[in-house]
Design goal:
- The complex is a heterodimer of chains A (about 210) and B (about 80).
- Chain A is an all-alpha fold and about 210 residues long.
- Chain A has two domains: about 90 residues, Rna Polymerase Sigma Factor, Chain: A, CATH 1.10.1740.10; about 90 residues, Winged helix-like DNA-binding domain superfamily/Winged helix DNA-binding domain (Arc Repressor Mutant, subunit A, Orthogonal Bundle), CATH 1.10.10.
- Chain A has eight helices and no strands.
- The longest helix of chain A has 23 residues.
- Helices cover about 80% and strands about 0% of the residues of chain B.
- Chain B is elongated.
- Classes of the chains: A mainly alpha (about 210), B mainly alpha (about 80).
Chain lengths: ~210, ~80
């Protein structure tokens, strides 16, 4: 996993200082990770108001429970787990009436079918402005079912390992892998519309 | 020779580079002979790369300020109860 941090020992020193009551040290940790936590919250809840709440609750909860951070994982992995839990709680609350279960494995087999095959250019994203691209990527990821989306966000956007993702979501490693595969295939398929080479028609497959 | 279905099942481990040398070689052999699966592997790899390259959301200043203010309130409350 990569994080944009300085070496781990610096981070641990910051956590130690924050624990001892340094507001400045905890503010540094906030500055380091608030963008990522906010993105995670937006991706999971798909609602700005909820994401703002999740951001705040995540850091307040982290501050309150700093003594539980033992330093055997990265601080980012620890705080991401808090963020995921806060975001899933919001999502469940919002979806309560729609009876969406995140724990339910949707296994119709259809998600691993590949319907569209068309080659993309080397850097197909360069066809779009940064803003347009952001809009496309957000829209496409939001079209995934929550159980796939959450796994994809943790593995491929936040770059947690398979094991860390399984732990954060209380899933088995095979369940993470299976959802990740389906999420990636669905995204690939949906993005093909935007990224395929002009003139490369799709054809039937499998 | 792997079937296309077997290739799809192994795709995530292949792209994450967590396959053994033998399985990896079998996948590479398959995609060198099956243009459709080559496209699926290539476009899925690009999908992951493009999402990884996304920038974190910029945090509006007022949201950052509200977070710091909430933290100060939390600290005051924690001091009172301890």
């Amino acid at each position: 996993m990569t994080t944009p941090t300085s070496p781990v020992f610096d981070e641990l020193a910051l956590v130690e200082r924050a624990r001892a009551g340094s507001s400045e040290a905890f503010a540094s940790l906030i500055r380091q990770y608030e963008g990522k936590i906010f993105r995670l919250a937006m991706n999971i809840t798909q609602n700005r108001e909820d994401a703002e709440d999740v951001l705040q609750e995540t850091f307040l909860s982290a501050y309150e429970h700093l003594d539980r951070f033992r330093g055997d994982s990265k601080f980012y992995t620890w705080i991401v787990r808090i963020g995921v839990n806060e975001a899933l709680m919001k999502l469940r609350k919002r979806k309560q009436d729609k009876s969406v279960s995140l724990d339910q494995e949707i296994d119709t087999g259809e998600e691993t079918m590949v319907r569209e095959i068309a080659a993309w250019g080397e850097n197909p994203e360069e066809r779009y402005s940064r803003e347009e691209l952001g809009g496309i990527l957000d829209k496409v990821v939001q079209s995934l079912p929550p159980s796939f989306r959450t796994v994809f966000v943790l593995r491929d956007i936040e770059e947690l390992s398979t094991e860390e993702t399984a732990e954060a979501l209380n899933l088995s490693v095979p369940a993470v892998k299976s959802r990740l595969l389906r999420a990636r295939l669905q995204l690939r398929e949906k993005l093909t519309r935007f990224f395929k080479l002009k003139g490369d028609d799709t054809f039937a497959y499998l | 020779m792997l079937t296309c279905k077997q290739f799809i099942e192994e795709l995530t481990d292949y792209l994450d580079e967590s396959l053994s040398g033998e399985s990896r070689a079998a996948i590479e052999k398959h995609i060198s002979q099956c243009p459709n699966c080559w496209v699926v592997a290539d476009t899925t790899r690009k999908t992951i790369r493009i999402y990884k390259g996304m920038e974190p959301y910029p945090i509006p200043q007022d949201l950052h300020d509200r977070l710091l203010a909430a933290l100060e309130r939390k600290k005051a409350a924690m001091r009172q109860t301890s």
